Amino acid sequence: MKMQFLVAPFLFIIACGFASAADAPDGEWNIVVTPSPKNTLKGSTVAYPDVLTLKKGQLSSQSSGKQGFAPGACTATTDKGKTKISADLVSPKHGKNHYEFEIEKGAISGSMVWSKMGEDGKAKEAEFTIKSK
Q1: Whole-angstrom Cα distance, residue 59 to residue 89?
Q2: Under DSSP, is residue 11 helix (H, G, I), strand (E, B) or coil?
Q3: pLDDT digits over 51-84, tens only?
Q4: CB neighbours of 109 closer than 8 A, spacing ≥ 6?
Q5: Most CB atoms within 10 A, among 48, 83, 90, 95?
Q6: What is the rounded distance in angstroms from the CA atom of residue 15 to the CA atom of residue 127?
Q7: pLDDT band at residue 8, thresholds of 50, 70 and 90?
Q8: CA 54 to chain centre
Q9: Confidence check: pLDDT of 10 > 60
Q10: pLDDT greater than 50 at residue 34
């Protein structure tokens, strides 16, 4: 009986991992990254264009790549024509960009949260919306 409780969650995690890798579509999207009016981190208050690329289960950002953010593994699920993507891009110097977005009919919409340690040693965040041009 105890074995079932241990094996079932493990099998679910494995099944989700295989489904996620298979559902991530390869492609490239021109997007606009729009900051939240609440953002206060330096470099987080002006909208900018970017290019997101999904290739072989890895998400990369042209703008973030220039700042040292490495491509990150993504998880993906597809339901009723919408593909939901989640990924983290990490830079040793600039922190982490966490992406959550949907792809539907070739268009992207969602969010990105940039988090990093501030000079005061406290975690800082800036929120953005992302949308296809």
Answers
A1: 8
A2: helix
A3: 999 999 999 999 999 999 999 999 999 998 899 9
A4: 101, 102, 129, 130, 131, 132
A5: 95
A6: 31
A7: very low
A8: 11
A9: no
A10: yes
The two three-digit tokens of residue 63, written as one number = 């703008």
Flag whether pLDDT at 129 surpasses 50.
Answer: yes
> Of 101, 16, 17, which is closest to residue 59 (Cα–Cα)?
101
What are the boundaries of each domain within the chain?
2-132
Q: How buried is 122 (Cβ within 10 angstroms: 0-12 exposed, 13-18 middle, 19+ buried)?
A: exposed
Rounded (5°) CA angle 105-106-109 = 95
Domain 2-132: which topology? Lipocalin (2.40.128)
Q: Which amino acid is at 114?
A: W
Report pLDDT for 23: 67
Residue 62 to residue 49: CA distance in whole angstroms: 9
Q: Are the C-beta atoms of residues 106 and 4 closer than 8 Å to each other?
A: no
